[in-house]
Design brief:
mainly alpha, 5 helices
Amino acid sequence: MEYDNDRLVKRPYKMEIFYWTLIFLLYPLINAVSFFPSDWKMWVVLFFISALVFPAYLLFPMVVAPRIFFQKQYKAAIFFTFLFLVVVLVVLFILFSIVAQIFPAAADTYYFSSSAGTVIRESLWAITNMGLAVGIF
């Protein structure tokens, strides 16, 4: 068997690293400033939640983008997009329930509740981050 070991291995571009960092920081910074401007513990919690969900956003374009752009498998791309959205939301709400038990303060429980507003907010964040991730790919 012959292997192609002569291929150059390219490192990611600096702009690509910048955009991945932007995706990682966008969610916790905007939500921390909006909902918890003076509560530094919640800032740490939001960065931790973002760090736990971020690998899904790294994996998403590797699974979906080739199906859309190269293989023209639109039904599979829609299925995997919906699947990733559900997985991200389930992981987020599991983390939110843990955080709500650790920090039972009144302002925190509304943010970490499973109300319709929270579901819509987190769905929009997930869709935005998945779109940005595919754009980086």
